[in-house]
């Protein structure tokens, strides 16, 4: 079984983040903002009202979705739309409507989808004062489409955890290994999840498998403090890393990358021999675009190559060979907002993926000088 070594320490959060809610009745203005608490939400998009304030960004928006949040305790909080599916722009304010102060803003902070372009928004580490109302504005600078978003509230005494995503590609599922690292003020905790898997109840420090969940679906989990209600911790949105293409080939691929790419392809040998990627052609823009080849099943594995080929961006002749026991290579393609293959007419990538179905001969040598005969 392949394991994605994605380990994220989760700070302590409080109040319910587990249940997914639908907040389609968001306000069009600050004065009609819909009150929400920590949780995950779905909005229908900032398409009406002409209520955008543009206070944080200065200009660019007409309509907005407005929400308000009043924390029950002191701490910090985060609001965002990472993996929410849409290009968003976010502003957060303190103060009363009409006298607001911009606390923070986010635009193009994190991916819209797993491996997707980084056009989603997040503002993290905002100070939270109990009983103080804060205002959240999602505007239409980039789109009026709907989006998913979340609020997280962090308290000091909540349990903390890390997680590993463990795909089971053969069965079309993945699980999440949750490691409870500290209990905080709890004596025991319960691990709930949004993916429909059974809860794991009344456990202590240790590692617990949550799932399984269908591949390429999102989930999140909570570590509930059973002794201190409201002082719980919650994960970010989680999904599996792409499953590998399993073959010995040779398989030839052509790919014309676009602007703002963050794309992954995973290849695994069908035998016990190493996997190789060989570039036959391809030109990359040399200012911000590159490929990275990882010696493993995800982007946490050692890097075999990172760059854009030669000084002119020519990838021709580049070769990488796996050294890991699973014989897997991960290819990541990243690009900036301009000058890609798709928008600039560059030569598409042409590469071959194949097993090295033989072992290279090895030899040693010793130089023996014959000075009299030169």
Using the coordinates shown, work out and report the CATH topology of the largest domain. Jelly Rolls
Total count of helical runs of at least 4 residues: 1
Instruction: Report, as a whole number of angstroms, the end-to-end distance.
Output: 60 Å
- Could you name the ranges where pLDDT drops below 50 across 5 or more consecutive residues? 1-23
Strand order of the largest sheet: 1-3-10-5-8
Q: Tell me the strand percentage band.
A: 35-45%
Number of strands: 26
Estimate the global geometry from the Cα principal axes: globular
Overall pLDDT? 89
Describe the structure using short key phrases.
374 residues; mainly beta; Jelly Rolls; five-stranded mixed sheet; globular
Explain what you see.
It is a single chain. With 374 residues, the chain is an all-beta fold. Helix content is 1%, strand content 40%. It contains one helix and 26 strands. It has one helix spanning 341-344, and strands at 20-22, 34-36, 39-43, 64-69, 75-80, 89-94, 101-107, 122-128, 134-139, 147-154, 160-168, 173-182, 189-193, 200-203, 206-214, 221-225, 233-234, 245-246, 251-255, 262-268, 275-281, 290-294, 303-307, 319-321, 328-334, 349-355. Strand 22 (290-294) and strand 23 (303-307) form a beta hairpin. Residues 1-23 have low confidence and may be disordered.
């Amino acid at each position: 079984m392949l394991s994605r070594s994605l380990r994220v320490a989760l700070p302590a959060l409080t109040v319910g983040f587990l249940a997914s809610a639908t907040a389609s009745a968001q306000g069009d203005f600050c004065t009609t903002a819909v009150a929400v608490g920590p949780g995950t939400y779905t909005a229908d998009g900032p398409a009406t009202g002409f209520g955008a304030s543009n206070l944080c960004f200065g200009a660019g928006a007409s309509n907005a979705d407005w929400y308000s949040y009043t924390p029950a305790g002191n701490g910090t909080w985060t609001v965002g739309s990472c993996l929410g599916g849409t290009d968003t722009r976010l502003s957060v304010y303190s103060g009363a409507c009409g006298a607001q102060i911009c606390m923070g803003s986010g635009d193009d902070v994190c991916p819209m989808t797993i491996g997707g372009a980084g056009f989603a928004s997040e503002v993290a580490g905002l100070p939270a004062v109990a009983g103080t109302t804060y205002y959240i504005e999602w505007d239409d600078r980039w789109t009026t489409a709907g989006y998913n978003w979340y609020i997280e509230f962090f308290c000091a005494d909540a349990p903390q955890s890390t997680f590993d995503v463990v795909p089971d590609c053969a069965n079309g599922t993945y699980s999440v290994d949750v490691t409870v690292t500290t209990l905080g003020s709890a004596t025991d905790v319960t691990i709930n999840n949004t993916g429909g898997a059974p809860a794991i109840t009344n456990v202590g420090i240790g590692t617990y498998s949550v799932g399984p969940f269908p591949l390429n679906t999102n989930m999140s989990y909570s570590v509930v403090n059973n002794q201190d209600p409201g002082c719980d911790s919650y994960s970010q949105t989680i999904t599996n890393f792409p499953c590998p293409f399993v073959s010995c080939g040779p398989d030839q691929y052509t790919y014309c990358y676009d602007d703002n790419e963050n794309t992954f392809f995973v290849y695994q040998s069908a035998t016990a021999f190493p996997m190789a990627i060989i570039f036959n052609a391809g030109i990359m823009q040399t200012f911000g675009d590159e490929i990275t080849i990882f010696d493993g099943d995800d982007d946490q594995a050692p890097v075999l190559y990172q760059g854009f080929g030669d000084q002119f961006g020519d990838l021709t002749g580049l070769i990488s060979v796996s050294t890991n026991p699973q014989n897997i290579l991960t290819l990541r393609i990243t690009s900036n907002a301009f000058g890609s293959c798709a928008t600039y007419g560059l030569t598409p990538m042409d590469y071959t993926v194949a097993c090295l179905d033989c072992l290279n001969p090895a030899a040693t040598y010793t130089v023996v000088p014959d000075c009299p005969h030169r």
